[in-house]
């Protein structure tokens, strides 16, 4: 999403600015999928599975890496470090229930992103259905083998140094979040369920594969600050300490 004059798959030329108020459309022909060491048939409740999605301004194509952990090399370019338009995600099993956790960077890192945080949040929300469709299309063999994953809840993590945009939203099931009409219904659950504190078989993986905090200024793996989590009609303040779940 290019935002700064960009945002996810959207390059902010005059043509794409027009899309700001139009419908976001997924084009399968523009998606390049890389499987990096993962078994396409292995259920993500048994083996870590993550998605790293980036966009090229030169080719106007998306690259989706499906791997055990975030594909760091895919995020090394200067443009990505400047625009921060990547979207990363991971499958999790918590209390025996599968869910997809999607992360995007709204602001923090440099002042330009802070200045347009509201616009970045708006565009990410608009383009995320396209992102989810890219995940579904790119990993279609997995979802065909395990169709119940379409009913998994999708949690969207917006990372920002501005409290208003530093929050988590539940977008309902994966099937609903990628529906043709693009609509979503936030479920009655207000926060993602936490994994068991002690070692168990109902939660996997034991630690997140995504090295992002929910609050800029904390070290990875440390205590996260207050994060707004959105349910149906309520916003709950929740203090989450990763160390307690290890």
Give an overview of the whole structure.
- The protein has 246 residues and is of the alpha/beta class.
- It has one domain (5-12, 29-186, 234-240).
- 19% of the residues lie in helices and 25% in strands.
- It contains six helices and eleven strands.
- Strand 9 (167-173), helix 6 (174-177) and strand 10 form a beta-alpha-beta unit.
- The longest helix has 22 residues, at 117-138.
- The radius of gyration is 17 Å and the shape is globular.
- The two termini are 33 Å apart.
- InterPro entries: Staygreen (IPR024438).
- Pfam families: Staygreen (PF12638).
- Residues 26-177 form the Staygreen protein domain.
SSE topology sketch:
Blueprint (H helix, E strand, L loop, with lengths): L5 E2 L2 E2 L2 H4 L13 E6 L13 E6 L6 E6 L10 H6 L3 E8 L2 E9 L5 H5 L1 H22 L1 H6 L7 E7 L7 E7 H4 L49 E4 L4 E4 L8
Parallel strand pairs: 3-5, 7-8, 9-10
Antiparallel strand pairs: 1-2, 4-5, 4-6, 6-7, 8-9, 10-11
Which class best fits the helix and strand makeup? alpha/beta
Coarse shape: globular
Helix content: 10-25%
Main sheet?
9 strands, mixed
Number of strands: 11
- Strands in their spatial order, largest beta sheet: 3-5-4-6-7-8-9-10-11
Strand content: 15-25%
Tally of individual domains: 1
Q: Tell me the number of helical segments per DSSP (H or I, 4 or more residues long).
A: 6
Distance between the termini: 33 Å
Family: Belongs to the staygreen family.
Domain Staygreen protein: 26-177
Protein name: Staygreen protein domain-containing protein
Organism: Brassica napus
